[in-house]
Amino acid sequence: MKIGFFVTCLVDLMRPRIGFAAIRLLEAAGCTVEVPMTQTCCGQPGYNSGDRASARALAFKVLEEFEAFDYVVAPSGSCAGMIRVHYPDLFRDEPALLARIQALGARTFELTDFLVNVAKLEGVPGRFDGTVTYHDSCAGLRELGVQDQPRALLARTGAELREMTESTTCCGFGGTFSIKFGDISARLADDKCVNACATGAEAIVGGDLGCLLNIEGRLRRRGDETTRVLHVAEVLAGEDGQPARREP
């Protein structure tokens, strides 16, 4: 399978190792991975703020960059959801382009969903000999049905999963929501931190870097310097920044 890897803005700018970890996983599943070098943003910030013209221009750009691939994979339910669920709205009055956009959306997947349901990945390169709790991101869960997939893959690393209370509740990020409604966002992030830390897990894991940056930022402001916050791809690929673990 020839995969077009959609890096996402946040991964590219804030934590590139997530992208490299995701590519390692895709290659472990037997995929040929290409990263179009002209890619930028999926258009979600503009779309959520009512700037349909900019969002449409970026959506068309993504279409041209990724249309030739068998599948498009992103380490983000938010960006994958934008392409699959919201792009058609931007082209609803243009039947020819709409058909192409819908075809692209049907081949676009969040990383763990693709690894489990399309690539059928059996084993993962990484080991995590510790405890984790998982945060379900809003877009991945509600738009794409991503919930069981990351947990199934995490189990293959040896990690012990401790479910937090209200794992499916928003962390407060929501892209521009956290800027427009800062007080509400902070309260949601506080609740998420309390619930996650109550599990006693060593690491909070999730599938969207926006959520993870929001959670980690709040954790540190609350004085927690020890709980790790990791993208699921980092754990699955064994690229979580920890020294390699040796078998006894």
Report on this structure.
There is one protein chain. The chain has 248 residues and is α/β, with parallel strands linked by helices. The protein has 2 domains: 116 residues; 107 residues, Rossmann fold, CATH 3.40.50. It has 13 helices and 8 strands. α12 links the parallel β7 and β8. α7 crosses α9. It starts with a strand and ends in an 11-residue tail after the last helix.
**H/E element sequence:** EHHEHHEHHEHEHHEHHEHEH
Distance between the termini: 37 Å
How much helicity do the residues have?
40-55%
Please give the largest β-sheet.
4 strands, parallel
Query: What is the number of helices?
Result: 13
Determine the strand fraction and express it as a percent band.
5-15%
What class do helices, strands and sheet pairing give?
Answer: alpha/beta
Molecular shape? globular
Mean pLDDT: 95
Quaternary organization: single chain
Order of strands in the sheet with the most strands? 2-1-3-4
**Radius of gyration (Å):** 18 Å
Overall number of structural domains: 2
Low-confidence stretches: 244-248
DSSP, total strands: 8
